[in-house]
């Protein structure tokens, strides 16, 4: 049962991280453009306006996705209570992969929104 509880906690790490950083990006955008911390892509680092837009947009996506992933990640764990560590571990691995795909998948709508609102030089349309 201890392993199951640990894996349940592990399943909450990505959604809680998404929620935490999403809220932070919505309220406390990193002040300076940088390639070390924040939503760092070629388009988002064009200028301060694109930087702020990308963080606002991505922050909203991460909060929404994180809140949706919390129950979606933990409900399947209810079906493996009392199962072997292999079954619990394998399910947790699959859940983790799905969470990471969703996390990285938020890049596509954010980049699409940047291209819709800014030209290739970062000037707002």
Tags for this model:
mainly alpha; single chain
Main sheet characteristics: none
Number of strands: 0
Strand content: under 5%
Q: Shape from CA axes?
A: elongated
Write down the domain tally: 1
Measure the end-to-end span. 56 Å
Number of DSSP helical runs: 4
- The class by helix and strand makeup works out as mainly alpha
Low-confidence stretches: none
Considering DSSP H and I runs of 4 or more, what fraction of the residues is helical? over 70%
Taken in chain order, the helices and strands follow as HHHH
Radius of gyration: 18 Å
Describe the structure.
- There is one protein chain.
- This protein has 125 residues and is mainly α.
- The chain has helices at 2-27, 48-78, 85-105, 107-117.
- The protein has one domain.
- It has 4 helices and no strands.
- Helix 1 (2-27) runs antiparallel to helix 2 (48-78), helix 1 (2-27) runs parallel beside helix 3 (85-105) and helix 2 runs antiparallel to helix 4 (107-117).
- The N and C termini lie far apart (56 Å).
- The model has no long low-confidence stretch (mean pLDDT 93).
